[in-house]
Amino acid sequence: MTFRDILASIYTNYVFRRFLFFLLIIWIASTAIFLIPRLSGQDPVKEKLLLEAQRGGHMQAGLEEMAAEYSRKFGLDKPLIVQYGNYMADLVRFDFGPSIAYFPKSVNSLIGDSVIWTFGLLAVCTFIAFFVGTIAGALLGWPKSPNFLQYIFMPILTLAAIPYYLLALVLIYIFAFNLDWFPLFGGYAVATLPEWSFRFTFDVIHHAILPASSIVLASLGFWALGMRGMMVTNQGEDFMIAAEAKGLRSIRLFFNYAVRNAVLPQTTALALSLGTVFTGSVLVEVIFRYPGLGNTLYQAIKLNDFFVIRGMIFIVIVTLGLATFIIDVTYPLLDPRVSYKKGS
Amino acid sequence: MATATTKVTKDLTKKSFKRRLEDFARYIRRNPSLGVGIALLASLLLFVVIGYATYEVERFRPLSGGPDLAPFESDPYNPGTRDGGYILGTDRQGRDVMSVMIAGIPLTLQIGLIAGLIGISVGTVLAFIAAYYGGWVDQVISTIVDVGLTIPGILILIVIAVNIQSGLSVQQMGLAVSAVAWVWPARTIRAQVLVMREQLYVEIARLSGTSGFSIMFKEMLPNLAPYIGASLVGSVASAILASVGLEALGLGPFDSPTLGMTIYWNIQFSSILHGMWWWFGPPILVLAMIFVGLFLITAGLDEWSNPRLRKRV
User: Fold this and answer.
1) ipTM above 0.85, yes or no
2) Nearest CA in chain A to B277
3) For the stretch B8-33, what's the b/e string if a residue is b when 16 or more beta carbons lie within 10 angstroms of its beta carbon?
4) Total domain count for chain A?
5) Does residue A237 sit within a domain?
6) Nearest chain A Cα distance for residue B150, angstroms
7) Is the terminal CB of chain B with fewer CB neighbours within 10 Å at N or C?
8) Residue A290 domain-assigned?
9) DSSP secondary structure code for residue B69 in this structure
């Protein structure tokens, strides 16, 4: 085997190609984030600094320091390509600079404070929605399941069309404002400090139920619809007919044949849905004033804190790209028909 | 003799418009989701038309009435004239909520239509170019589309909107959203063209020396029209979703009473904590009707254009 053969085999390797794709996502996204402000001809950072300078007040102290940092960072006198290089070098080191509104707090620490809330909320919600939605879809797409299921699940399927935050507004009005079963906002009670105690954990769960339900209810339908479609498609396949002809019991047909094959595309859909779930949950967090990434992003938009917006969007895209990569790479383990070796 | 055969084949392949309409009506009866979806949107449009004809829509502007008035609560700021109050009350800044709804529905639909139409046109052209030419052209386009699918469009839209800021208009909002609206159509239509390219009539057209351009636009495009129509509804829906999301985040046209801006003002002034149901209720209801309506129409059209899905509803 020559060196060239080895190179060729690495290039055709599935994992390697997926990794290249992951890098490409990050490169295209970060380039877009770099170019868009320059295309618009406006400079949100400078405008924000000028605004703060005019206003004076508490920002005054960090202003000069910040302006220096700002011109050093972007080297505005240098050509575009150098600016681009500097920007990329910063991104590679995950250095997003300081927050403008909360100077000298860094973008990273702002994101670090809130990431755990969003991660916890979304991980639990996605798991529940995936699990329940897939089961519902499997039952809906199975010809032998009782008819009344259609009437129970159909309204839930239509909820798939409604954005999470509209549902959040309705839930908060009914269950928090009118019935007073759940708190109106926040991730934990106002007077407490985060700690690892039984009471605090219970408080966090109590606060999370409403935001979580709005995300789960609104995303159930997506999973149910996808699963139902796959179940219906599988119905006419040869392996289903063969299994039925063998006289296998219904329950075995359902789980080992129909569901086993229909659930595979659901896992690829999982990769694509992560982005939707995150962006959908941004406004849910805003509405519940949940202390997660979405709320931080909203505050940053309101304060025109461009570094925070940029850093957060970059981190979210890297996370999504990474999740997609992991799902893509593990997919052949679930579905032997997709092989590692051949290029897509 | 020869002309007679062509005439017969023409009659067989081309149904009259009336016949198509009858087919469609029969299909709606069999596939209620399409009918319900169209009915939902039609009722909203009817509401807008009647509203513009009979109601003072100009009161969508702030300070048109007293703030925070419940429905039919008399307006202390306009004594004598507005003792009966307003049908849906007013918001914190004195907009008449009823006027906001009448003015807002067409604006929001307009954003969706602009972005959806641009998105589907660009997506279709890219899909045809990629699928027909194949090779490295396809590789480049498909890779960009795959990347675009992984990056949530709204994040890119946030960066765009944060940078424009100097008061977007409704049309600019539509244009901005169209920047990410072409990705999904490009992907799905490309898959359809790939399947279609292998079909016999395309093969025959190619063998008989028809040019690539006219195969694409004279043979394949008409056959894909129902599918493209169904995806248009879908992309209008996702464009509206994106625009309402941006607006609710405070990145929309501030002086236009779109539905998303109404949601934004609701969040901004915590209308729920004040129990102002007449303010947050209508935009939620109308947006739900738009989204569910478009969703049902997409589902219905999908089945119509792709009969394999018809087995079971």
Assistant:
1) no
2) A173
3) eeeeeeeeeeeeeeeeeeeebeebeb
4) 1
5) yes
6) 6
7) N
8) yes
9) P
